[in-house]
Design a protein that fits this description.
It comes from Lophiostoma macrostomum CBS 122681. This is Alpha/beta-hydrolase. Keywords: Hydrolase. Pfam families: DLH. The structure is a single chain. By secondary structure, the chain is α/β, with parallel strands linked by helices. It is globular. It has one domain: Rossmann fold. It has helices at residues 59-70, 90-93, 98-102, 106-126, 129-144, 159-167, 192-195, 214-228, 250-253, 259-280; strands spanning 3-4, 24-28, 31-36, 45-50, 74-78, 151-157, 179-183, 189-190, 201-206, 238-243. Helix content is 40%, strand content 18%. Residues 7-13 have low confidence and may be disordered. It contains ten helices and ten strands. The longest helix has 22 residues, at 259-280. Helix 6 links the parallel strand 6 and strand 7 (179-183).
């Protein structure tokens, strides 16, 4: 039986990073898309960033795309929510950083959970898999058709993390990716979403993630180890990295004023870049 791992107020917490994105906005496959290009303009190695619930205009994800471009990749952030991402203001007023969260009263936590239900529930229905996966599939197919494109990777965060895992399991050559990275994915079904993985998959998870506890992480580790050994057919490379004292969303929305949190964000960024250098090179 598959275990469905949902969403919580952690999905709505975090910080907005300072900095000015340097990319451009284009329309690709009918979707508005942020594009960050490497210095040589090559599309040979391309990365599709699948966003969390805050969408493609969120400064943090655009600055991350710029970092991928600086490392030699063309990075695309499509508006897969088609103009219906949740407002960034929720970052400031739903769930506080970990130290504050741990000191919250039961009443405060109950109020937070209630707000999550009224905010996320309707949004998740509107952006369920039957709606969102065809949009994401169509964009990946379009990227593969861009002149000069050879290898395509996908990296997803929270809501988008699950779709990165699903992309790693695609059999259709027009939709398949050459490598995938998923940072603190939400809404994953265990084992179902991982059993079909065919492309190299790297996972960045926080040990204080309220959506993926020790039990779920253990199940994922076991599944991916079996794939590495080829127990379910062809061998599939993978890695599962756990970040100490990091909550859901840390790789994209951590508190950079905290030395430990900033290091975790930086290390997760390096994890993704090194994975793609290895498997898209």
């Amino acid at each position: 039986m598959s275990t469905g791992v949902g969403v919580s107020s952690c999905c709505l917490s975090g910080k907005v990073k300072e900095g000015k994105p340097a990319g451009t906005v284009k329309t690709i496959g009918g979707l508005e898309t942020y594009v960050a290009e490497p210095e040589d303009g090559s599309t040979r190695k391309s990365i599709v960033l699948l966003v969390d619930i805050f969408g493609w205009t969120f400064p943090n994800v655009r600055l991350l795309a710029d970092s991928y471009a600086a490392s030699g990749f063309t990075a695309y952030i499509p508006d897969v929510h088609e103009g219906d991402s949740l407002p960034i203001e929720f970052l400031q007023d739903v769930e506080p950083p970990l130290p504050t969260r741990e000191s919250m009263t039961v009443l405060q936590k109950t109020a937070s959970t209630a707000k999550v239900g009224t905010t996320l529930g309707p949004w998740l229905i509107s952006h369920r898999e039957a709606v969102s996966k065809p949009i994401i599939d169509g964009f990946i197919r379009q990227v593969r058709l861009i002149p000069g494109t050879d290898k395509v990777g996908v990296v997803g965060f929270c809501w988008g993390g699950r779709y990165a895992i699903l992309a790693a399991g695609e059999k259709d050559p027009g939709l398949a990716v050459d490598a995938a990275v998923a940072c603190h994915p939400s809404l994953v079904a265990i084992p179902a979403d991982f059993e079909g993985v065919r492309a190299p998959l790297s996972l960045a998870l926080g040990d204080k993630d309220s959506l993926l506890g020790e039990k779920e992480v253990g199940q994922i580790r076991e599944l991916m180890e079996k794939k590495k050994r080829g127990e379910q057919g062809e061998k599939v490379e993978s890695e599962v990295r756990i970040y100490e004292d990091q909550v859901h969303g840390f790789a994209l929305r951590g508190d950079w004023s905290s030395e430990k949190d900033k290091k975790a964000m930086d290390d997760a960024e390096k994890q993704g870049i090194e994975w793609f250098k290895k498997y898209l090179g």
